[in-house]
Target: Dephospho-CoA kinase
Amino acid sequence: MPLVALTGGIASGKSTIARRLAEHGAVIVDADQLVREVQAPGGPVLAAIAGTFGDDMLRPDGSLDRAALATRVFGDAEAIAQLNAIVHPAVRAESARRFAAAFAADPHAVVVYDVPLLVEARVQDPWQLVIVAHAPADVRAQRLVELRGLSHEDAAARMASQVPDEARLRIADVVIDTAGAIDDTLRQVDELWQNLDEHVARRAAAS
Model:
């Protein structure tokens, strides 16, 4: 019943890896999706966000205006810390509930937590394997421009707001190189899946 963390910088191909692992039978718990769920109207997280940053963070229907919130906190370390203090505990609790439910349903399940902010928020959790999706910064910047329509300046700012690649690579048990063709990425994921028990055992022996 391995509990696996999957992380990577923006536009690193992490979602492609997660989809392939799901095809192999892994249970994927998506941190970004959990954030959206805990921020739903009527919950304490959204109320705390509005109370901290103002009611103009809410849309007319009472849901979170994510663009307004992103604009409010972007580049403001204190505001980001305030937001994280509201959101992270709720996400941590909900993710733990999802992990427990997955293992209760299948004690032999492989549960993969797809989490962008692993280094920033969850690196000390008891993972049995840490997978890092990695591509050079110039490749990821090009993807942000060509595939997501960002300007070069916005792409650079998004990447600069995250921890350096070296910080993720330092905690990796397995690095999936996503700089090449997608078939190459999928081949690496397939090999990882075939040797998953060995990777988990190697991390356990090293700890």
Remarks:
- Residues 66 and 192 are 35 Å apart (CA to CA).
- The domain at 1-26+110-207 is CATH 3.40.50.300 (Rossmann fold).
